[in-house]
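DATA SHEET
Item: assembly model
Revision: 1
Owner: S.N.
Input lines:
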Amino acid sequence: MSSEEKLDPRSRFIQLFMSHEKQIYRYILSLMPHSQDAQDVLQETAIALYNKIGDYDPTRPFAPWAFRFAYHMTLKHREKSSRWHRFLDEDLMKEIASRQSMLTPELDQRREYLKECLAEVPQDKRSMLTDYYFEDETVDVIADSQGKTVEATYKALQRVRKTLMHCIQGKMQARGVTA
Amino acid sequence: MNMKPIGNEEWDSLLDKAISGTLSDHEAQALNRILKSDQDRLDDYIRYVDMHGSLYQEPLLAVAGKMDNMIDYETLKSEAARRDNIDFWKTFAAVASIAALVALSLNLWQVIPGSGSQGFDQEDYLGIVTSLKSEESPSDLFVGKGLQRGLFRLDAGKAQVRLDNGVELSMRGPVEFDVFGLDHITLMTGRVTANVPPQAIGFRIDTPDMEVVDLGTEFALKVDKAGESRLHVLEGEVEARMKMGMDYENEPLVIAKDRLAELDLNPSYLEREYDPNSFAPSPLKDPLIRAIGGQVHNLQDPPKDLRHGRFKHDYLMLFPERRNFSLPQSLQVNLAKPGTYRVMSENALKQYLDTATSKQREREKPVLSSLIQGKIPENTLVHSYLIHFDASANENHRAKGRVRFKNKILGVILHGPNLNESDSIVGHSDIAYESKQGRRTENDIVRISSDCQQVFMNFEIHGFIDQARIIVEADPSPVAVAQK
């Protein structure tokens, strides 16, 4: 019997969920790109997975099994918001999920290049990214701490993301990886 | 269907709004159409969103920038590990609460909310009541009450609610509305004025006969007993239409405050002149608070009962106690100088000095909770704010956040006995404070910024409540300035 099979269901869930949480979060984010909404869906997915962990077949990969729950939780969450409802219909969600799965090797590669590109970002811009992505600060608070307007801070964040996208694309092309 | 090709700038803007959650209905529909019809754009979207998600998980961002501002000081191996753990436990908390529900019998669970506590856990709530000025409000309506989906009613007086997306709703009773979600309410009857920040653009209010969608604005709506609505735009612009009616009134019409004169049409629902008495007032904002961050919620009015177990929240609740108040006697404060402090009892301090790493000691200054670092002189004109943290669970509970004031912070009072003493000096006369041993500062982090305008707190509670009284310098009156 493997060590994984010896674990009680709760411990097995924690082990599996911890090792796949980032992947599940990114999957949800592709379907519902706002981080707070995606976090909410992630929590709801975690609850559903916890309740159904007894049904999981450990001989099969965990991620695709978890994605099915994440997909349905996103569908459910989208019903609560008219805005998401207009953006995401079921056909589009299916298409995104399917394309994301096809792009997985490229996305893995891009994440590697993201690290390199981040290291090239000037300190003040990286500090802003830290405030936004790591500290979960709102744009209002970042704007205030930097003495800028909210509008200007939104724009500055948009520009840094765009620079990162260009940088990643440049590295992909320079190293002969086709996007 | 033929579609106009989209320019790169417009495309970038759509992507950015999608991840910021600020897509208007129109933009959401446009993005939907583009992604369905253009495979390249769909792939670009997936790459962009994947990068956005990866940034949330990128350890490089954990070691960059101003980590000292919000550092958790937990004894984890690395900042990346800290982030992973926080993310996991934030998610797992939801699972654990479900497990707890299963473990408890229904009867026992029903007993818990009846313990006399007013407040809420953060799950399932979309906002909070931040102000209430009403003698006739039902007993289940109070400052600090969590707002859930469903019906909200105020019989008389005024109230203010803040939704979690930053939308501020001010109302004048009698008013009744139904909350569908963060971005949508239906006003059945009464008067509501909404202030909508940029991140919540697209917020919508339906009435029996109208739909109003915010495009970045402050607008006032009132619905009379017959269900007829009237609209006034106080700032920015909205898109409004009648659900029934004649001709153009059925079509969405953009109404901009600054371009009312250019409006050729004269929809029957529009009140061009603003009568402040016939609408709800503009939502109030505390003029002294520049920003809040993390798990801080600020209330316009103080809650009534702050005794142990009476006002429980998963947040650090911030509210004013007294404003522009001249101190009748000098006031001792525990912290008054910039720095990062770990506040502890004598025993905990001894243990800390034995076990703390050199890095920890560089980052923070361990101090006894009874430390007196300053005394504010008699007759100083001050504002007094209280931070209150009394979480819903019995086990350890942690929350952190910061508040930046417009004026200088003169001192922070944290120690139970000092809080008790200062209640009668700067406390609010209508608040029932915890006056026994229920306030205890233990292993909490407080950081006062170098400009003395910001205070950061990382509070942990287990069995007692944490409070911090923040004394802020008031602007001197014009008379006092003239006398000088």
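QC remark: Chain A touches chain B through 78 residues (CB under 8 Å).
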